[in-house]
Write a structure and sequence with these properties.
- The complex is a heterodimer.
- Chain A is mostly helical.
- Chain A is built from 8 helices and 5 strands, in the order αααααααββββαβ.
- A 3-stranded antiparallel sheet of chain A has the order 4-1-5. A two-stranded antiparallel ribbon of chain A has the order 2-3.
- Chain B is mostly helical.
- Chain B has 2 domains: 128 residues, Methane Monooxygenase Hydroxylase, Chain G, domain 1; 48 residues, Ribosomal Protein L9, domain 1.
- Chain B has a 3-stranded antiparallel sheet with strand order 4-1-5, covered by helices on one side. Chain B has a two-stranded antiparallel ribbon with strand order 2-3.
- Chain B is elongated, with a radius of gyration of 26 Å.
- Classes of the chains: A mainly alpha, B mainly alpha.
- At the A-B interface, α3, α4 and α6 of A face α2, α3 and α5 of B.
Amino acid sequence: MNESEEINISNEVNSDESDSDELILTAAQVIQIMEEAWSNEKFAPEILPHKYEIVECILGQISHVEENLSNLINDDLRRSIHQMELDRLRYLVSSYLRTRLEKIEAFVCCILKEEDERASRNKLSYLSPSELEFAKAYRDGLDQHFTDTLKLLPAEILNNKIWQNEIITPNLDAFVFAKAKSQIEGVMIERDEEFVDLEKGSQVIISYSNISNLITNDKVSLI
Amino acid sequence: MFGDSAYTLIKELDRNPGTLPPYNNELVGEVKKEICHLVQQNHADSMANDESILGENGTNYFPTIRARHAGVQRNLRCLLAYHYNRVKCLRTMRWEFGSILPPDIKANLSSIETNWFSKYSSMLAKYMRSISEDGGLNLTVDLNPPKALYIEVKCLVDYGQYELSDGSVLLLKENSRHFLPRNECEDLIRQGVFQHIVT
């Protein structure tokens, strides 16, 4: 995106950003993480672990800066520049959340099933609590809709809930552009059983399924 | 012919991408009736089959049952596709028009779809409210990356008075031009009140 927004926000606030792990990050770093999460989410076919803390943090900053801005007089040049930056940031966050929502809606059954599995194995959940709630409500809504529309059909069809038989799943074999963030050795290409090494900063076109774990481990990013 | 009406239903869907034609109650009813009919026949035949197996040289009904069953499956698939795609279209409209639909679209919905829409609307609103601690984030604005803070817009209809968020009131007349903050007009552009002038 744009470099100016990082500089701008880091001037405004430098003190109180923190991750859930009590990491101290500067505003510029936070935004960089957010941008990366955004592009990963945009290009990955499946839903990725949520970055709720980052989103919260940026939204907090936005309202904080907005509050400061309201003290400035209307035709101050600084005001319009800052306002522009805020708009950009807000776009970044809402686009990120929108992309996630679209994925949740498209693959709702599949995502909830995976989420259940993760919960049963005590793994970190990919959806944030409110996303999870939304996903469940969305699934129930669809369920109800189909049940209602198929009313009057023989009971054995209704009880089978045939719309759950063929759920829509993301195409994990889709090809993506990936950039290595550090030296990675031995990425296995499943079909040919080949191994490739990725140099730091190198870019490859690769099937998503081969690098999905590297994305969650923050070793590569999608571009 | 089996499946004809289901096929017509899908064709109708295919011919109107991105819009919502009136809910085809009649055709949906026909498809459902066909399904019921086929299922009933299969029931009857499967009973007969039991006896004919015992009698050894009776007619074998299995191929007929299979064919009918395939017909039922196909019809169901078409029905679900029809409804699912309408719902998806409706969902896009929630994002475009907000929680209140224009009356011409509302007239095209079945009552079940209206129900779904209001449910979806409220779950989306609930999600958006829950995003940040202070009051949530409206995801249906900021759809495009912002390029400039102010944009030039042309008013297409006599809208009347419109209050901006800083309290000043504008009179929007047909063909008048305004230079406004982008986030203030985004909604009105989507509603067709404004046209964005790109120079």
